[in-house]
Amino acid sequence: MPFTGDDFLDGQVLLIDKPLNWTSFDVVNFIRSLIRKVYSLKKIKVGHAGTLDPLATGLLILCTGKKTKEIEAYQRMDKVYIGSMQLGTTTPSFDRETEANKHFEFGHLTKNDLLKAQKQFKGEIEQVPPKYSAVKIEGKRAFDYARKNTDVKIKSRKVMIHDFSLLNINIPDIDFAVSCSKGTYIRSLVSDFGKSLNNGAYLTALRRTQIGDYKVSNAYTIETFKKVILD
Question: In the CATH scheme, what is the code of domain 79-211?
Fold first, then answer.
């Protein structure tokens, strides 16, 4: 067993590959419960350094014990994602969480149209987080208002897009990669990209591959971490 209970209390930085349909807090709760059970600890602090939506997969940085004091430093790091979007359709959540609410003709769009629009989304941009998001408005999460069909105004924010590349264009389906600052909503980026084409777009898949210099290729899956702890 490579860890001891004292290791986790003193503080560990764990790289976890978040599974599809798990919330970030599901991962935190699972890891915390597992550590407490295996090492017979009454209490152990565990926190994550940057939320991933349930429909996204990829790198989560978890800090335990005394290392939880360093979470903010990891949150400030740049992020790298790969993902897929579909043109010609929008959803209220900007992803697959909600049903389509609008459809657009896309047969006239060309690869050159997309590449031209892509250039608008590099450097500092302003974006509005999705109404189905964890952004706090008067003490409540935005998604709490959205699920009750309550309209609220979400303030725009400035974010930095270091790179936005279209990797595979097979209209209406597009694969892409993004390197960006903290606080960037990829769902909003995709939605705004659709609007820039006088069309619509929503996120169909997303995977976070890197946070700062930390890569998902070096991360534990839930199963591998469980095996390491239990062996």
Answer: 3.30.2350.10
